[in-house]
Amino acid sequence: MENPAIADQFDEMADLLELDGANVFRVRAYRNAARVIRDLGTPLRDLAHDPKALVELPGIGTDLAAKIREILETGTFKALAELRSKFPAGLLELTRLPGLGPKRVRLLHDTLGIASLGDLRRALEEGRLEGVRGFGERSVRKLKEELDRAATRGEKRMLLAEAEKWVNALLEHLRAGGFDTVEAAGSYRRRKETVGDLDLLVATTEGPRAIERFVSYSGVEEILAQGPTKASVRLRGGPQADLRAVHPDEYGAALCYFTGSKAHNVELRKIAQALDLKLNEYGVFSGERRVAGRTEEEVYEALGLEWIPPELREARGEIELAKRRSLPQLVELRDVRGDLHAHTNATDGKATLEEMAAAARNLGHRYLAITDHSKRVTMARGLDAERLRMQWREIDRINREAGGLILLKGVELDVLDDGALDLPDDVLAEADYVVASLHYGASRDPRENTRRLLRAVMHPLVDAIAHPTGRLLNRREPYPLDFEELARACAAEGCLLELNGSPERMDLPDHLAMAAAEEGVRFVLGTDSHAVSHLGYMSYAVAIARRAGLTKDRIVNCLDLEGLRRSLKRSAYRPIQ
Ligand code: DGT
Ligand code: CA
Ligand code: CA
Ligand code: ZN
Q1: Ligand 2: distance of its center to the CA of 184 in Å?
Q2: Which of 42, 77, 220, 279 is most buried per CB count within 10 Å?
Q3: What domains are there in the chain, each with its CATH number?
Q4: Whose CA is nearest to atom 25 of ligand 1?
Q5: Residue 142 burial by CB count (10 A; 0-12/13-18/19+): exposed, middle or buried?
Q6: Residues with Cβ within 8 Å of residue 145, at least 6 apart in sequence
Q7: Residue 232 in contact with ligand 1 by CB distance below 6 A
């Protein structure tokens, strides 16, 4: 055991003692010892055999010296193990959060029952910390930031949107160096919601020059490996990126190989073998002769397959379809006529109605649904009926004055704990479009969450369920849910499921979108924009749709406004007079 690990155990002991309300001198003794050990030049294990050497260290008496020996012999010490079992592991994790510390953790535990990072996140989201002694507005805000940071530490995969920034910068750098045929392969090209590392390819006969150009990119922090045809770098504050330079004759085969997925590649190789061909990253070979390799189309053709869009290459049935030449015509960004999920500064968005409308118009949208939060979402200054109607009058005015884009009157309803909705029917009936979502108090019991959402699905004036699983990538798991039951109900009721393109949501997950499609569900793509720049997130909603194999006729916002209105559930609603 090395000194830092021993010091960590003493620090942990001090934290636990503090949680336990122990005497401050005991706490301090462990902290001091931890510091001394960390700063020590000699390994403790070299001192431990000399009975006097340990106690001669500043801050270490006979008691702590014995504990050091115990750690060296057994890996830990009994007093620590005992205290560990006394407190939920989550409590200690909480004390590690900058700005908390054992005393405040204890206070939160005793007043609000908070015992884990998850508990704290929920309490913050529900605004329950306000009012606890010592937790002012500033410290609450800081806690939220720290919580986000803690959740993204460790083994984290990059969001697709982040990966895109790096890819674009690198491709531009390579193109400016005179390399025109460059692409990012790997999970990025498959448009997976998170990306591990970047796999770039360049077609060139000047490999070394391309590699030189790549490693000279200003964002490179460290060159991990460099050869004449490939290099690996770590980007500053970013991911690892690899570049391979391949001959133009091999480019299609390399692109296919490095796009993956691995499972897809395995299937392809099996097909090649069955045809007595060899497939690798250099081409398709019949004996020694290369029969394909320059383009991907050529490679798939040589295997008797239709070219497969990268988003489908997950060995989920796409190869069988390609064999029969019946791959779906996947939806494209340009098929999308409007966006049906956006917020304004009336709640937690940044921009005004007019600014959102102008930005959506610039993107070529025909319509934009404004779906600010309903009143329950107090953190976001949710709208009550009165403020909502005010906004709708404003929308009427804007629609009369500005041409080219129609703002739709919408609302993002919070589904209450018992499944009831947050606004009365007479208000909902005046809307053009209503999405419901679960923001607060998701249960650990899947039946309860399912029941809550089903009540919204059954409501004649709820058109869609927004971000149906509630996941936040790298931060929050989906709430437990009987998804199949939800999807069936949506299909039966004509309720849409949203594919939310917000980069940290990408919700539904693609495999669930695929499953829902099989149940007959129709979808709506939404960006959940909270600023004008977010309207561009539509490409990520499209990514989910494509990975789920969806065609445009499954997606209501690929319709013009008339078609959209007709296909909404509310079009069948006749209020009882
Ligand atoms: P990532 O980076 O974890 O998000 O996922 P990918 O899919 O980008 O995987 P990565 O970067 O390990 O490799 C890129 C592609 O290269 C992968 O999708 C398929 C291909 N590949 C890499 N290693 C192997 C392998 O051992 N066997 C096969 N068949 N293909 C491989
Ligand atoms: Ca990769
Ligand atoms: Ca890689
Ligand atoms: Zn929203």
Answers
A1: 9
A2: 279
A3: 3-153 (1.10.150.110), 159-323 (3.30.460.10), 333-572 (3.20.20.140)
A4: 262
A5: middle
A6: none
A7: no
Does the C-beta of 280 come closer than 6 Å to ligand 1?
no
**What are the φ and ψ backbone dihedral angles of 75, each rounded to 5 degrees?**
95, -20
Give the predicted TM-score (pTM) of the model. Answer: 0.76
CA dist list (Å): 429 to 385, 391, 432, 461, 548:
12, 15, 8, 7, 32
Predicted confidence pLDDT, tens digits, the chain (577 residues): 788 789 989 989 998 998 898 998 999 999 989 988 887 778 898 888 887 889 999 899 999 999 999 999 999 999 999 998 888 878 888 887 877 888 889 889 989 999 888 889 889 888 888 888 888 888 888 888 888 777 655 557 999 999 999 999 999 999 999 999 999 999 999 999 999 999 999 999 999 999 999 999 999 999 999 999 999 999 988 899 999 999 999 999 999 999 999 999 999 999 999 999 999 999 999 999 999 999 999 999 999 999 999 999 999 999 999 999 999 999 999 999 999 999 999 998 999 999 999 999 999 999 999 999 998 776 678 899 999 999 999 999 999 987 789 999 999 998 988 888 889 999 999 999 999 999 877 787 889 999 999 999 999 999 999 999 999 998 888 988 999 999 999 999 999 999 999 999 999 999 999 999 999 999 999 999 999 999 999 999 999 999 999 999 999 999 999 999 999 999 988 765 5
Asked whether 261 lines ligand 1 (CB < 6 A), one says yes
CA of 212 to the centre of ligand 3 (A): 19
Ligand 1 neighbour 248 (Cβ under 6 A)? no
